[in-house]
Specification:
This protein is an alpha/beta fold. The protein is 46% helix and 17% strand. Strands 1-2-4-3 form a 4-stranded mixed beta sheet, with helices on both faces. Helix 5 packs across helix 6. It starts with a strand and ends with a helix.
């Protein structure tokens, strides 16, 4: 398992950030039944940088809490059976790991939202990683039914890690 974590924000969270990220990534893959060793990249940035990315990739000129950039396309979320047909596109040839994608987080938003929602920064970070991991596994929340499914899965992942409000 390769989880690359880059700290690009000047401000840092006073948390065991890397431990939380690794724990939630692993819990999400376990919950989704991923049969492969995987590769995920996580970048911790600030509101200014995530706003620029949000504007460039989503056409929304405002900071957001997290952006997910999946490397795989799933017909059905977390149906990993399809990736073996595209080994050259889905797996890192050097490590043999499944390349899931990138997660970009705003440290500023983690702080703001933890305070706003009345829970810890640890819980907010864990929530955003769980949410983004589900996007990397092919889930979305555009429809109400999809949103409910994602919310239930997020809660399951957070419970597995003991991340409670």
């Amino acid at each position: 398992m390769t989880i690359t974590i880059d700290h690009e924000a000047k401000e840092v969270l006073c948390l065991p950030t890397e431990e939380i990220i690794r724990d939630v990534v692993l819990k999400a893959l376990e919950a989704e039944g991923c049969p492969y060793e995987a590769e995920v990249s996580v970048v911790l940035t600030d509101n200014r940088e995530i706003q620029a990315l949000n504007r460039e990739y989503r056409g929304i000129d405002a900071p957001t809490d997290v952006l997910s950039f999946p490397m795989l396309e799933f017909d059905t979320p977390s149906d990993f059976s399809q990736v073996e047909a595209h080994v050259e596109d889905c797996f890192n040839p050097e490590t043999g790991e499944l390349i899931l994608g990138d997660i970009i987080l705003s440290v500023d938003k983690i702080r703001e939202q933890a305070e706003s929602y009345g829970h810890s920064q640890e819980r907010e970070l864990a929530f955003l990683i769980a949410h983004s991991m589900l996007h990397l596994c092919g889930y979305d929340h555009m429809e109400d039914e999809e949103r409910k499914e994602m919310e239930a899965k997020q809660e399951k992942i957070l419970e597995l890690g003991g991340y409670r409000r």
